[in-house]
Amino acid sequence: MRKKDGCGMNKTNREIGIRIREEASSLAERVYAHQVDHMPELKEQTAKEFAEKSIRDTKYNLLYLADAIMVTSPDLFCNYLKWLLKLMEGIGIPEKYIVENFVSIKAVLHERFKNEESLVIEEFINQGLDNVQDCYGDESEDYNPLSTEKDAYINALLQGDRKKAGVIVQDLVKRKIPLEDIYLSIFQQSQYEIGDLWQQNKITVAKEHYCTAATQLIMGQLYPMIFETPKRDLTFVATCVGQELHELGIRMVSDFLELSGWNTYYLGANLPTAEVIQTIIEEKPQVVGISATITYHISEVQRLIEEIRKTPGCEEVKIMAGGYPFLVDRSLWKTLGADGFARNAEEAVTVAESLIITSEIQE
Q1: Which residue stretches of the chain have pLDDT < 50?
Q2: CA separation for the pair 245, 140 (Å, rounded)
Q3: Which residues contact 304 (CB under 8 A, 6 or more apart)?
Q4: Cβ–Cβ under 8 Å, residues 183 and 149
Q5: Which residues are registered as beta bridge partners of 287?
Q6: Do residues 279 and 267 touch, judged by C-beta distance below 8 A?
Q7: What pLDDT score was predicted for residue 132?
Q8: Are 313 and 193 in a shared domain?
Q9: Residue 228: its pLDDT value, please?
Q10: N or C: more exposed end of the chain, with fewer CB within 10 A?
Q11: What order do you get walking across the sheet with 263-266 strand by strand?
């Protein structure tokens, strides 16, 4: 199960992951039936909605497992399990139900796959369950010089007072606080903390979405200052893959590069691959940024990178990857065939500049 060194995927693992993704819906139904047979208390849950929700959640588990296997990354799967258990604890679901769900997944996939493939799957699941407490977790929070303002900003959003949140940011601008500091200390940190509140079941998903939308709007109010910075002959195209809707991170990357003199084309989320490719051909960027926040979207990152690599007119562009899965597995960008990876918007500027220098040296 060890990951291959350098760029590339383990062929067998990739095929296993693809098959699990393709059959996820039918497999989820079989897994749920197996779990009900082995947990008598579940048989008492006769409501149709309970079964539908359980099958849906099982499908998510399969998709996360599939993509972790596909790129031979036990860390990705272990981290997902840790996140899932924390989420379930927040809504009062005992850990044993999650463990039994993966026991049923192992049983069903053992029947579906050949022995050698089944062993790979079982090793992933067993390693994840055995090491979940020791796997990668949240990084310790760095010192935040704007922590007081950040707390006030979060409180305003949670109270539904978008105007007050905007005033807090505008006051920072009047104090001549650099926009980069506002982005990192206010916008980024607030998103992390609000996400944690949702995971702990302390706020609803609707509230979390409201806070994100409000932050996007407030960021937009800063654009006149961002776009007035002098520009160089450098272009950056940014996108989120497929159905990825958590686009705030890659938007911040675009804004940081714009502040550094790049001409940026922020394509947002849910744009078809063909449209992304066409934009690259037309705008001829030096660097393309691709973001994924959810682990089971990394297969779409891989497909987009492959399409870029094989399309005439895109041969020279450098690809920078980012998002939560790439923080969990720091070699994932190499596995998927990208040219670089950035942990945050600030680092993205440095990485993009270095990719340009590397390209010039190679020429």
Answers
A1: 1-7, 138-140
A2: 26
A3: 239, 241, 273, 276, 290
A4: no
A5: 236, 318
A6: yes
A7: 77
A8: no
A9: 87
A10: C
A11: 263-266, 235-240, 287-291, 318-322, 340-341
Tell me if residue 264 falls in helix, strand or coil.
Answer: strand
- pLDDT at res. 243: 62
Domain membership of residue 172 (yes or no) is yes
Query: Is residue 4 domain-resident?
Result: no
Find out whether 350 and 317 touch, Cβ atoms under 8 Å. Answer: no
Q: Return the structure tokens found at 279.
A: 């934009």
Please tell me the pTM assigned to this model.
0.83
Domain count, the chain: 3
Q: What is the CATH number of the domain that holds 58?
A: 1.10.490.20
Say how far apart CA 121 and CA 110 lie, in whole Å. 8
The set of residues, in sequence order, having a beta carbon less than 8 Å from that of 94 and lying 6+ positions away, is: 88
Provide the domain limits for residue 314: 230-362
- Which sign does the torsion angle of CA 165, 170, 176, 181 carry? positive
SS3 letters across 9-56 = CCHHHHHHHHHHHHCHHHHHHHHHHHHHHHCHHHHHCCCHHHHHHHHH
> Is 280 found in the same domain as 240?
yes
Retrieve residue 231's tokens: 């520009």
If asked whether residues 200 and 234 sit together in one domain, one would say: no
What is the per-residue DSSP string for 144-180? -TTHHHHHHHHHHHHTT-HHHHHHHHHHHHHTT--HH
From CA 42, how far away is CA 247, in angstroms rounded? Answer: 37
**Strand locations in the chain, DSSP E?**
235-240, 263-266, 287-291, 318-322, 340-341
CA distance 151 to 114: 53
